[in-house]
Amino acid sequence: MKNNSIDFTNKVDEGLVGNELIEKAVKELQNEATQEMLAHTLTVIRKRMKQKGQFVIAVEPSFGLSQMNVSVVKTADGINWWTAFTSFDEEMKGGDGVKSTFLTDIEQLLRAAVSADGINGIILNPWNRTIMLDKTLINIILG
Question: Coil, strand, or helix at residue 65?
Answer without folding.
Answer: coil
